[in-house]
Every structure is written in structure tokens, then in C-alpha cells.
Amino acid sequence: MIIGTGVDIVKNNRIKVLIQKYEAHFLEKVYTKAEISYCQAKKDYAASFAARFAAKEAVLKALGTGMRNNSWQEIEILNNQLGKPEISLFGKTKTRATELKISNIFLSIAHEKEYSIAQVIMEGVK
Length: 126
Prior knowledge:
CATH architecture: Alpha-Beta Complex
Pfam families: ACPS
Cofactor: Mg(2+)
Strand content: 25-35%
Protein name: Holo-[acyl-carrier-protein] synthase
Structural class: alpha+beta
Oligomer: single chain
Function: Transfers the 4'-phosphopantetheine moiety from coenzyme A to a Ser of acyl-carrier-protein.
Keywords: Cytoplasm, Fatty acid biosynthesis, Fatty acid metabolism, Lipid biosynthesis, Lipid metabolism, Magnesium, Metal-binding, Transferase
């Protein structure tokens, strides 16, 4: 059964400007060390960071909490060995998913020139 869904779209240049303006402060506030390493290795790093930002927003929407009592660092988006993006939850976001009895989280991200988008579907039992 679907417990929650979330979708978010981000303009890549918005994230690029934030990275250029705030540098490590912005990156370390929003992304985990593993996410930063992954994205910085990409030619179009801004799109990779933007997609992960959109994915984190989509997770918060699917959980029904928004940023209330959550941290960006508690949501990690990394790719598996086949390149599929996957979500790991920590801290309060993991606790919320457990409370909702979430058993699976599905993530799809895409980039298209100026924008990155992410969709999250959370499955579980009621």
C-alpha cells in the first residue's frame, strides 16, 4: 500500500548559485560527505546536487513533515552499483518512516537542461 508520495523540481542554476555563494557551508548543511564526493566528481555537478536536493524535498513531502524536526543530513541519496539512486534515512526521518510502517522507498530522479526533478513513493502497511 502506498503510504506517501512526494515530488519536487529544482532549477539547477539556483543550486549552482548557492554553491558558489556559500561554498562548503551550504554543501555541508544540505549534503552528506558521500553525496558531496559523488556530485563533485560529475561534469554537471550542479544538476547532480539539484537532483539530490529535489529528492530530499520529495522525501520530506512523502513523510508528511516538511522540514519540521528534520535535518537535510538525515536523508542521503546515493547510487547503487548499477547507478540507480537510492535513499537512506537516519535520525528523526528514519523514526518517522518507522512510525508510518514504511517498508520500501522508491526514488526516480531526472535532469533536463535547466531543471532536476525527483519523485518518491513510500510503500508500507497501514
